[in-house]
Write a structure and sequence with these properties.
Elements lengths: L2 H9 L5 E3 L12 E5 L6 E3 L2 E4 L1 E10 L4 H13 L5 E7 L4 E11 L5
């Protein structure tokens, strides 16, 4: 999955989405999504990268707990056969919930 394919997939949630963050003062009202690639977990062979594996984090931000929006994101991930781990945290300083979906993408996500 490429970066553009992931962007298009997340756009299917009909929730505003940005890579990594929104510019200062340009963040939409919640809910919104940010995603990024925090690290790789490449497969090696013969002393080099044989197959690129990129970790992706999709962060859903809401001001209230919203299981319906979580289900919307999960339905999109499920439809693309993406195996994900899910966690949640309350960010007191932002007064937002962050629901984090972490998964791996095979191929070159930065293309």
């Amino acid at each position: 999955m490429t970066h553009n394919e992931l962007m298009a997939m997340l756009a299917g949630t009909e929730i505003p989405v940005a890579y990594d963050h929104y510019a200062e003062g340009e963040s939409p009202e919640p809910p919104f999504i940010c995603f990024r690639y925090p690290r790789s977990n490449n497969f090696s062979a013969d002393g080099g990268v044989y197959y690129k594996i990129t970790e992706a984090d999709v962060e859903l931000y809401t001001d209230l707990k919203n299981p319906e929006l979580e289900e919307r994101v999960e339905t999109i991930l499920d439809a693309h056969n993406i195996f994900y781990d899910k966690s949640e945290v309350w960010i007191e300083s932002e007064r937002l919930y962050e629901v984090l979906y972490s998964f791996e993408i095979g191929g070159n996500a930065n293309a």
